[in-house]
Every structure is written in structure tokens, then in C-alpha cells.
Design brief:
By secondary structure, this protein is mainly α. It is built from nine helices and no strands. The protein is globular and about 60 Å long.
Length: 256
């Protein structure tokens, strides 16, 4: 039987996984609808990808929670999808520019979209959905495999180096995106990407903490905790940029 710490750690881990399954979807759809990935900084996505790969291999070497490994693998796949969109739409635009009658702006003007529900209500509903799916996934996994997960018994320096490298890359990745937002006013950037990234990182950090606040467990997971917890503050800043520029655009009468 799982004790309460293992249970909470597993539940929060699965909620985090459920959250990250949908977190990339709004930005991927945004890129598709605009037929452009120029709202994202390439350096941001590349640093994110390298950080996720370090996260993945570090988690495997360190024998961390299965949810940590699953998340890192999924992150890497989604990063590749975002990069593929950016370069595909650039290639597509290059072809269009060779046809004068088909020239279009790099980022198409976004028309005001109908909002049947307030933004906060939609996000709240999405969070409830994520929590329900995460709890269901935890319940199914606990039924199929009742073996408890325990903190790593040995701290490996290779895993620690990779974990801290990923943490630094996650933090550094936000800088080019924040800089790009100053120029583009966050045009083509989905706020949901960062909103759910915040929720995912918070639940991810809590899942590690719930496993035990012992010195060994905290040291073994220090890079992953730092990478998740510290990026929350930068993601809050990015969200602030998004809503600030949208407020400015509305006051100036620009259609988004």
C-alpha cells in the first residue's frame, strides 16, 4: 500500500502530466491558425528543448519519479513540434513571397474572436478538467501497479549536472522570449502556454516535495525543483506582458 506521502506525490505528479499534455496545445493551435510561429523566440524554444533533453537524461540517470521521466520525454516531443511549425511556416512564407499576389504579413492581424465565456472562467474550467484527468490517471496507475515509489537511494553527480543544466536553460530561455515580446507586443503568443506552464511547474514541484523533505531527497531533486519553481516567476512576468499589451491595444483601438 502507498503511504500518504507517496499518494500525494503520485497524485500531484499525474495532475502535472495531465496539465502538460494540454499546455502546448494552445500555442500549437495559435501557430496553426496564424500560419506562423513568429510569436515564439527560436532561442526560447531551442533552449527549452536542450533543457528538456538534459532533464530527461538526468532524471533517468538519477532514478527519479516515473512522472518526471514521462514529462521530460513529452516536453521534448512538443518542443520539436513547435520548432517544426516555426521553420515550416517560414518555408511556406518564402514560397508565398515568390508569388506577388499571395504576399501576406509575417503575423496576420488577429481579428477579435467571439468570447462566449470570460477568460478566467475558461481557464478555471480547463484546470478542473486537468485535475480530474490527473486524479483518474493516478487511480488507474495505482490499480495496475500498487508498488510504492521511493526517493533515490544514491545521488549521482552526472544526474545532478544534467538537472542543474536544464534548470539554468529553462531560466535563460525566457530572456529571449521576454525580449521578443517587447518588439512584437506578444502578437502570436498564446497566454495559455504560460498560464498552464505555471500550474504544471507548481504541481510538479509539489509532487517532488510531497515525497519527503529529507535532505537526500531535496538534494537529489534540487535541479528539477529549481528549474520548475524559479521559472514560475518569469512565466508570471510573460503573462503580465501579454495582458499589458492587450490592454494597451484595446485602449488604442487596435484589433487583435
Amino acid at each position: 500500500m502507498l503511504d500518504s506521502r507517496d499518494t500525494w506525490s503520485s497524485v500531484l505528479g499525474w495532475v502535472s502530466i495531465a496539465n502538460w499534455i494540454i499546455v502546448y496545445s494552445p500555442q500549437i493551435y495559435e501557430n496553426y491558425s496564424l500560419q506562423s510561429g513568429e510569436g515564439l523566440s527560436i532561442l526560447f524554444v531551442l533552449a527549452w528543448l536542450v533543457g528538456d533533453l538534459c532533464n530527461l537524461f538526468g532524471a533517468i540517470l538519477g532514478g527519479l519519479l516515473p512522472t518526471v521521466i514521462i514529462l521530460a520525454l513529452y516536453y521534448s516531443v512538443c518542443d520539436l513540434i513547435l520548432l517544426a511549425q516555426i521553420y515550416y511556416y517560414r518555408w511556406k512564407r518564402t514560397r508565398q513571397l515568390s508569388r506577388p499576389l499571395e504576399q501576406e504579413p509575417l503575423l496576420q492581424t488577429r481579428h477579435e474572436r467571439p468570447r462566449n465565456l470570460p477568460l478566467l472562467l475558461r481557464y478555471t474550467a480547463a484546470l478542473v478538467f486537468v485535475v480530474v484527468v490527473g486524479v483518474m490517471a493516478w487511480w488507474i496507475s495505482s490499480v495496475l501497479d500498487a508498488r510504492p515509489t521511493s526517493p533515490p537511494t544514491k545521488i549521482r553527480w552526472e544526474a545532478q549536472v544534467l538537472g542543474w543544466t536544464s534548470a539554468v536553460l529553462y531560466l535563460v530561455a525566457r530572456i529571449p522570449q521576454i525580449s521578443k515580446n517587447l518588439k512584437t507586443h506578444c502578437e502570436g503568443l498564446s497566454p495559455a502556454l504560460f498560464f498552464f506552464a505555471i500550474f504544471g511547474n507548481v504541481t510538479f514541484s509539489l509532487s517532488i516535495g510531497a515525497q519527503g523533505l529529507t535532505r537526500k531527497n531535496l538534494i537529489a531533486n534540487s535541479g528539477w525543483l529549481a528549474g520548475s519553481a524559479l521559472t514560475v516567476f518569469l512565466d508570471v512576468f510573460v503573462l503580465g506582458q501579454v495582458f499589458y499589451y492587450r490592454a494597451v491595444d484595446r485602449s488604442s483601438g487596435r484589433s487583435r
